[in-house]
Design a protein that fits this description.
2 strands; cell wall biogenesis/degradation; hydrolase activity, acting on glycosyl bonds; 334 residues
Length: 334
Protein backbone atom coordinates (compact mmCIF):
# COMPACT_ATOMS: atom_id res chain seq x y z
CA UNK A 1 0.00 0.00 0.00
CA UNK A 2 1.28 3.41 -0.94
CA UNK A 3 1.97 5.66 2.04
CA UNK A 4 0.04 8.93 2.28
CA UNK A 5 2.32 11.97 2.23
CA UNK A 6 1.78 14.94 4.52
CA UNK A 7 0.56 17.01 1.56
CA UNK A 8 -2.05 14.36 0.71
CA UNK A 9 -3.18 13.84 4.29
CA UNK A 10 -6.70 15.23 4.89
CA UNK A 11 -5.73 16.42 8.37
CA UNK A 12 -2.96 18.69 7.11
CA UNK A 13 -4.57 21.99 8.16
CA UNK A 14 -1.58 24.06 7.05
CA UNK A 15 -2.15 23.12 3.40
CA UNK A 16 -4.61 25.97 2.83
CA UNK A 17 -2.19 28.52 4.29
CA UNK A 18 0.58 27.20 2.06
CA UNK A 19 -1.67 27.69 -0.95
CA UNK A 20 -2.13 31.36 -0.10
CA UNK A 21 1.60 31.92 -0.28
CA UNK A 22 1.96 29.85 -3.45
CA UNK A 23 -0.94 31.68 -5.15
CA UNK A 24 0.82 35.02 -4.60
CA UNK A 25 4.33 33.88 -5.62
CA UNK A 26 3.66 31.34 -8.36
CA UNK A 27 0.00 31.31 -9.50
CA UNK A 28 0.64 28.97 -12.43
CA UNK A 29 1.98 26.22 -10.18
CA UNK A 30 -0.68 26.82 -7.53
CA UNK A 31 -3.55 26.52 -10.01
CA UNK A 32 -3.43 22.71 -10.05
CA UNK A 33 -3.28 22.50 -6.25
CA UNK A 34 -6.23 24.87 -5.81
CA UNK A 35 -8.32 22.97 -8.38
CA UNK A 36 -7.54 19.63 -6.71
CA UNK A 37 -8.39 21.03 -3.27
CA UNK A 38 -11.77 22.22 -4.55
CA UNK A 39 -12.45 18.88 -6.24
CA UNK A 40 -11.51 17.05 -3.03
CA UNK A 41 -14.07 19.05 -1.03
CA UNK A 42 -16.65 18.56 -3.80
CA UNK A 43 -16.19 14.75 -3.73
CA UNK A 44 -16.37 14.76 0.07
CA UNK A 45 -19.69 16.61 -0.06
CA UNK A 46 -21.04 14.03 -2.52
CA UNK A 47 -20.06 11.26 -0.11
CA UNK A 48 -21.71 13.10 2.79
CA UNK A 49 -24.94 13.45 0.81
CA UNK A 50 -24.97 9.73 0.08
CA UNK A 51 -24.23 8.85 3.72
CA UNK A 52 -27.05 11.15 4.86
CA UNK A 53 -29.50 9.40 2.54
CA UNK A 54 -28.70 6.05 4.16
CA UNK A 55 -28.98 7.47 7.67
CA UNK A 56 -32.52 8.73 6.95
CA UNK A 57 -33.89 5.16 6.86
CA UNK A 58 -32.38 4.11 10.19
CA UNK A 59 -29.07 3.30 11.80
CA UNK A 60 -27.12 0.22 10.86
CA UNK A 61 -26.31 -2.66 13.21
CA UNK A 62 -22.82 -1.33 13.97
CA UNK A 63 -23.67 2.37 13.74
CA UNK A 64 -22.43 4.63 16.52
CA UNK A 65 -20.96 8.08 17.06
CA UNK A 66 -17.49 6.55 17.05
CA UNK A 67 -17.92 4.65 13.78
CA UNK A 68 -19.42 7.75 12.18
CA UNK A 69 -16.37 9.78 13.23
CA UNK A 70 -13.96 7.29 11.65
CA UNK A 71 -16.21 7.02 8.61
CA UNK A 72 -16.02 10.80 8.12
CA UNK A 73 -12.22 10.62 8.43
CA UNK A 74 -12.09 7.83 5.83
CA UNK A 75 -14.34 9.80 3.44
CA UNK A 76 -12.15 12.91 3.82
CA UNK A 77 -8.97 10.97 3.07
CA UNK A 78 -10.59 9.11 0.18
CA UNK A 79 -11.79 12.41 -1.32
CA UNK A 80 -8.28 13.85 -1.07
CA UNK A 81 -6.70 10.76 -2.63
CA UNK A 82 -9.25 10.60 -5.46
CA UNK A 83 -8.71 14.26 -6.33
CA UNK A 84 -4.92 13.80 -6.35
CA UNK A 85 -5.12 10.71 -8.58
CA UNK A 86 -7.32 12.17 -11.30
CA UNK A 87 -10.66 12.68 -9.56
CA UNK A 88 -13.83 13.00 -11.61
CA UNK A 89 -12.60 15.70 -13.99
CA UNK A 90 -13.53 18.86 -12.09
CA UNK A 91 -9.97 20.00 -11.38
CA UNK A 92 -8.97 19.46 -15.01
CA UNK A 93 -11.99 21.48 -16.16
CA UNK A 94 -11.08 24.32 -13.81
CA UNK A 95 -7.48 24.29 -15.01
CA UNK A 96 -8.53 24.33 -18.69
CA UNK A 97 -10.93 27.18 -18.09
CA UNK A 98 -8.53 29.42 -16.24
CA UNK A 99 -5.53 28.62 -18.44
CA UNK A 100 -7.48 29.93 -21.42
CA UNK A 101 -8.15 26.50 -23.01
CA UNK A 102 -11.91 26.71 -22.52
CA UNK A 103 -14.44 28.73 -24.45
CA UNK A 104 -13.02 32.04 -23.22
CA UNK A 105 -9.38 32.91 -22.63
CA UNK A 106 -8.35 34.04 -19.17
CA UNK A 107 -5.40 36.30 -18.50
CA UNK A 108 -2.70 35.49 -15.97
CA UNK A 109 -4.02 38.42 -13.96
CA UNK A 110 -7.47 36.73 -13.87
CA UNK A 111 -5.82 33.49 -12.76
CA UNK A 112 -4.06 35.29 -9.93
CA UNK A 113 -7.32 36.93 -8.86
CA UNK A 114 -9.11 33.56 -8.90
CA UNK A 115 -6.42 31.87 -6.85
CA UNK A 116 -6.30 34.71 -4.38
CA UNK A 117 -10.08 34.74 -3.94
CA UNK A 118 -10.29 30.97 -3.39
CA UNK A 119 -7.21 30.64 -1.23
CA UNK A 120 -8.23 33.56 0.99
CA UNK A 121 -11.62 32.01 1.80
CA UNK A 122 -11.90 30.16 5.07
CA UNK A 123 -12.55 26.43 4.93
CA UNK A 124 -16.22 26.75 5.92
CA UNK A 125 -16.98 29.01 2.94
CA UNK A 126 -15.13 26.75 0.51
CA UNK A 127 -17.07 23.77 1.87
CA UNK A 128 -20.35 25.65 1.48
CA UNK A 129 -19.46 26.47 -2.14
CA UNK A 130 -18.53 22.86 -2.85
CA UNK A 131 -21.68 21.58 -1.13
CA UNK A 132 -23.88 23.83 -3.27
CA UNK A 133 -22.04 22.76 -6.41
CA UNK A 134 -22.32 19.05 -5.52
CA UNK A 135 -26.05 19.36 -4.77
CA UNK A 136 -26.68 21.14 -8.08
CA UNK A 137 -24.58 18.51 -9.86
CA UNK A 138 -26.61 15.61 -8.39
CA UNK A 139 -29.91 17.31 -9.21
CA UNK A 140 -28.79 17.97 -12.79
CA UNK A 141 -27.75 14.34 -13.27
CA UNK A 142 -31.03 13.05 -11.84
CA UNK A 143 -33.02 15.38 -14.09
CA UNK A 144 -31.03 14.33 -17.15
CA UNK A 145 -31.53 10.62 -16.35
CA UNK A 146 -35.28 11.11 -15.83
CA UNK A 147 -35.63 12.97 -19.14
CA UNK A 148 -33.56 10.35 -20.95
CA UNK A 149 -35.62 7.49 -19.51
CA UNK A 150 -38.90 9.19 -20.44
CA UNK A 151 -37.63 9.85 -23.97
CA UNK A 152 -36.52 6.23 -24.42
CA UNK A 153 -39.87 4.98 -23.11
CA UNK A 154 -41.66 7.24 -25.60
CA UNK A 155 -39.50 5.94 -28.45
CA UNK A 156 -40.20 2.33 -27.44
CA UNK A 157 -43.93 2.97 -27.42
CA UNK A 158 -43.80 4.67 -30.80
CA UNK A 159 -41.72 1.87 -32.34
CA UNK A 160 -44.08 -0.84 -31.08
CA UNK A 161 -47.62 -1.61 -32.14
CA UNK A 162 -49.41 1.03 -34.17
CA UNK A 163 -51.63 3.04 -31.82
CA UNK A 164 -55.36 3.26 -32.43
CA UNK A 165 -56.31 6.35 -34.44
CA UNK A 166 -56.86 9.32 -32.15
CA UNK A 167 -55.25 7.63 -29.13
CA UNK A 168 -51.81 8.88 -28.08
CA UNK A 169 -49.08 6.39 -27.16
CA UNK A 170 -48.81 6.01 -23.37
CA UNK A 171 -45.55 7.18 -21.84
CA UNK A 172 -45.05 5.59 -18.43
CA UNK A 173 -43.30 7.74 -15.81
CA UNK A 174 -39.77 6.77 -14.89
CA UNK A 175 -38.87 5.66 -11.38
CA UNK A 176 -36.62 8.71 -11.06
CA UNK A 177 -39.42 11.08 -11.97
CA UNK A 178 -41.66 9.82 -9.13
CA UNK A 179 -38.92 9.78 -6.49
CA UNK A 180 -39.29 12.20 -3.58
CA UNK A 181 -36.58 14.77 -2.88
CA UNK A 182 -37.16 15.02 0.87
CA UNK A 183 -38.94 13.32 3.79
CA UNK A 184 -41.20 16.39 4.03
CA UNK A 185 -42.56 15.98 0.49
CA UNK A 186 -42.87 12.21 1.01
CA UNK A 187 -45.00 12.63 4.14
CA UNK A 188 -47.09 15.48 2.76
CA UNK A 189 -47.92 13.66 -0.50
CA UNK A 190 -48.62 10.16 0.84
CA UNK A 191 -50.23 10.95 4.20
CA UNK A 192 -53.80 11.06 2.77
CA UNK A 193 -53.27 7.62 1.14
CA UNK A 194 -51.96 6.21 4.43
CA UNK A 195 -55.03 7.53 6.26
CA UNK A 196 -57.35 5.89 3.72
CA UNK A 197 -55.56 2.53 3.98
CA UNK A 198 -55.47 2.76 7.78
CA UNK A 199 -59.23 3.29 7.88
CA UNK A 200 -59.72 0.06 5.93
CA UNK A 201 -57.35 -1.86 8.20
CA UNK A 202 -58.28 -0.24 11.51
CA UNK A 203 -54.66 0.63 12.37
CA UNK A 204 -52.55 3.74 12.94
CA UNK A 205 -51.83 5.51 9.60
CA UNK A 206 -48.45 6.62 10.96
CA UNK A 207 -47.34 2.98 11.12
CA UNK A 208 -48.30 2.45 7.48
CA UNK A 209 -46.49 5.57 6.28
CA UNK A 210 -43.41 4.76 8.38
CA UNK A 211 -43.24 1.31 6.80
CA UNK A 212 -43.43 2.85 3.33
CA UNK A 213 -40.63 5.26 4.31
CA UNK A 214 -38.47 2.34 5.42
CA UNK A 215 -39.11 0.27 2.31
CA UNK A 216 -38.30 3.13 -0.09
CA UNK A 217 -35.82 5.29 1.85
CA UNK A 218 -38.38 8.08 2.25
CA UNK A 219 -39.35 7.63 -1.40
CA UNK A 220 -35.86 8.42 -2.69
CA UNK A 221 -35.19 4.88 -3.93
CA UNK A 222 -38.33 3.57 -5.65
CA UNK A 223 -38.31 0.14 -7.27
CA UNK A 224 -37.87 0.45 -11.02
CA UNK A 225 -38.93 -1.96 -13.72
CA UNK A 226 -36.46 -3.26 -16.30
CA UNK A 227 -37.21 -0.38 -18.68
CA UNK A 228 -36.65 2.19 -15.92
CA UNK A 229 -40.34 2.98 -15.47
CA UNK A 230 -41.88 3.32 -12.02
CA UNK A 231 -43.39 0.34 -10.21
CA UNK A 232 -45.03 2.55 -7.53
CA UNK A 233 -44.38 -0.31 -5.05
CA UNK A 234 -44.09 1.39 -1.66
CA UNK A 235 -44.22 -1.67 0.60
CA UNK A 236 -41.83 -4.17 -0.99
CA UNK A 237 -44.61 -6.68 -1.71
CA UNK A 238 -43.25 -9.48 -3.87
CA UNK A 239 -44.95 -10.86 -6.96
CA UNK A 240 -45.58 -14.51 -6.03
CA UNK A 241 -47.83 -17.00 -7.82
CA UNK A 242 -50.94 -15.18 -6.55
CA UNK A 243 -50.03 -12.00 -8.44
CA UNK A 244 -51.23 -11.77 -12.04
CA UNK A 245 -50.24 -8.15 -12.74
CA UNK A 246 -47.11 -6.38 -13.90
CA UNK A 247 -43.86 -6.89 -12.01
CA UNK A 248 -40.38 -5.47 -11.47
CA UNK A 249 -37.40 -7.80 -11.06
CA UNK A 250 -34.55 -6.24 -9.06
CA UNK A 251 -31.76 -7.10 -6.64
CA UNK A 252 -32.82 -6.98 -2.99
CA UNK A 253 -31.20 -7.51 0.40
CA UNK A 254 -32.57 -10.49 2.33
CA UNK A 255 -31.53 -12.00 5.66
CA UNK A 256 -31.05 -15.76 5.79
CA UNK A 257 -30.20 -17.18 9.24
CA UNK A 258 -29.26 -13.66 10.33
CA UNK A 259 -26.88 -13.13 7.41
CA UNK A 260 -27.59 -10.42 4.82
CA UNK A 261 -27.46 -11.61 1.21
CA UNK A 262 -28.16 -10.02 -2.16
CA UNK A 263 -30.91 -11.83 -4.07
CA UNK A 264 -32.91 -11.18 -7.24
CA UNK A 265 -36.65 -11.05 -6.69
CA UNK A 266 -39.84 -10.03 -8.49
CA UNK A 267 -41.97 -7.28 -6.94
CA UNK A 268 -45.51 -6.21 -7.72
CA UNK A 269 -45.87 -3.19 -10.00
CA UNK A 270 -48.74 -0.72 -10.01
CA UNK A 271 -49.95 2.24 -12.03
CA UNK A 272 -50.02 4.67 -9.09
CA UNK A 273 -49.18 5.11 -5.41
CA UNK A 274 -52.89 4.86 -4.66
CA UNK A 275 -52.97 1.34 -6.13
CA UNK A 276 -49.96 0.42 -4.00
CA UNK A 277 -51.76 1.45 -0.79
CA UNK A 278 -54.94 -0.38 -1.83
CA UNK A 279 -53.07 -3.59 -2.63
CA UNK A 280 -51.15 -3.30 0.67
CA UNK A 281 -54.46 -3.22 2.56
CA UNK A 282 -55.76 -6.22 0.60
CA UNK A 283 -52.48 -8.07 1.12
CA UNK A 284 -52.70 -7.78 4.91
CA UNK A 285 -56.41 -8.56 5.22
CA UNK A 286 -56.24 -11.70 3.05
CA UNK A 287 -53.34 -13.30 4.93
CA UNK A 288 -53.70 -15.16 8.24
CA UNK A 289 -50.12 -14.25 9.12
CA UNK A 290 -51.05 -10.65 9.83
CA UNK A 291 -54.20 -11.11 11.92
CA UNK A 292 -52.30 -10.15 15.06
CA UNK A 293 -50.96 -7.00 13.40
CA UNK A 294 -54.48 -5.92 12.43
CA UNK A 295 -55.53 -6.25 16.07
CA UNK A 296 -52.91 -3.69 17.17
CA UNK A 297 -55.35 -0.81 16.62
CA UNK A 298 -53.69 2.57 17.09
CA UNK A 299 -50.53 1.08 18.65
CA UNK A 300 -48.05 1.70 15.83
CA UNK A 301 -45.16 0.00 17.62
CA UNK A 302 -47.20 -3.14 18.28
CA UNK A 303 -48.33 -3.16 14.64
CA UNK A 304 -44.70 -3.07 13.44
CA UNK A 305 -43.65 -5.83 15.86
CA UNK A 306 -46.54 -8.05 14.76
CA UNK A 307 -45.68 -7.53 11.10
CA UNK A 308 -42.16 -8.72 11.74
CA UNK A 309 -43.43 -11.64 13.82
CA UNK A 310 -45.74 -12.59 10.94
CA UNK A 311 -42.77 -12.74 8.58
CA UNK A 312 -43.39 -9.60 6.54
CA UNK A 313 -39.63 -8.99 6.21
CA UNK A 314 -36.47 -11.00 6.82
CA UNK A 315 -34.59 -8.08 8.40
CA UNK A 316 -34.26 -8.88 12.14
CA UNK A 317 -34.29 -5.13 12.93
CA UNK A 318 -37.33 -4.37 10.78
CA UNK A 319 -39.68 -3.24 13.55
CA UNK A 320 -36.92 -1.28 15.29
CA UNK A 321 -36.29 0.68 12.10
CA UNK A 322 -40.00 1.46 11.73
CA UNK A 323 -40.05 2.73 15.32
CA UNK A 324 -36.98 4.87 14.57
CA UNK A 325 -38.83 6.50 11.69
CA UNK A 326 -41.97 6.95 13.82
CA UNK A 327 -39.92 8.95 16.32
CA UNK A 328 -38.46 11.23 13.64
CA UNK A 329 -39.37 14.90 13.46
CA UNK A 330 -41.36 14.43 10.26
CA UNK A 331 -43.98 12.39 12.13
CA UNK A 332 -44.32 14.70 15.12
CA UNK A 333 -46.85 17.02 13.46
CA UNK A 334 -49.05 14.25 12.05
Amino acid sequence: MKAVSSDDFFGNFSALSALKTKAQKDPETALKDVAQQFESIFINMLLKNMRASNESIGSGLFSSAQTKQYQDMMDSQMSQTLARSGGIGISEALIRQYEGKGSAAASSHDDTDLLTRISNQDLVRVQALAQKASTEFVQAVQKEMAEKTSLEAAKDNLSGATPVAGVAAEVKPSARSVAFDSPESFVQTLWPHAQEAAEKLGVNPKAILAQAALETGWGKYPIAKEDGSASFNLFGIKADSRWQGDRAVVNTLEYRDGIAKQEKAAFRAYDSFSQSFNDYADFLTTSDRYKEALQAGKDASSFAASLQKGGYATDPKYSDKINHILSSKWFESL
